[in-house]
Amino acid sequence: MALGIVWDSKEDIITFPVVSVTRPDQQKTKRGMLSMIMKIFDPLGYLSPFLVKAKRIDWDTPLPKNMMKDWQDWIAEIPSISEIRLPRCWLPAGNDCIKEVELHGYGDASEMAYGSAVYLRATTVS
Fold first, then answer.
1. Mean pLDDT by 10 residues, the chain (126 residues)
2. What is the pTM of this model?
3. Pfam families given for it (predicted)?
4. Which of 2, 21, 22, 64 is the most buried (most CB within 10 A)?
């Protein structure tokens, strides 16, 4: 593990171990939610699509009933973070077969969130 990121050197993948982030006495407000969210370490933003769902309400406002269900569903999904496995190396083995590499970046935003995606395209000789 380096800087909270777990690297499985045998499979050359990055994984996200799940830590317990819930407490029975946790406030049902955004402040309480952010307390939980900040326990999920994601400095590179790989988990942003998951975490952004929890960042959309006012700080100290109690959660309305319709959001309480969404919040409970979100908490129930936390264990699935440990199933995420990202390859560390994005190029095929034997880089001598690569003819050309392109990097494509995209971004978008709304009033609620923003996001970006970067794609690596490698053209091989064959």
1. 73 78 68 76 78 67 76 84 81 76 92 83 83
2. 0.52
3. Peptidase_A17 (PF05380)
4. 21
Q: Is the dihedral of CA 91, 4, 38, 72 positive or negative?
A: positive
Long-range contacts of 108-115 (CB under 8 A, 24+ apart): 112/52, 112/56, 113/52, 113/55, 113/56, 115/48, 115/49, 115/52
* pLDDT score of 71: 80
48/113 Cα distance (integer angstroms): 10
Any idea where the domains of the chain sit in the sequence? 1-88, 90-126
Check residue 106 and give its pLDDT: 94
Cα 22 to Cα 35: distance, rounded to the nearest angstrom:
9
- For residue 8, what are the β-bridge partners? 13
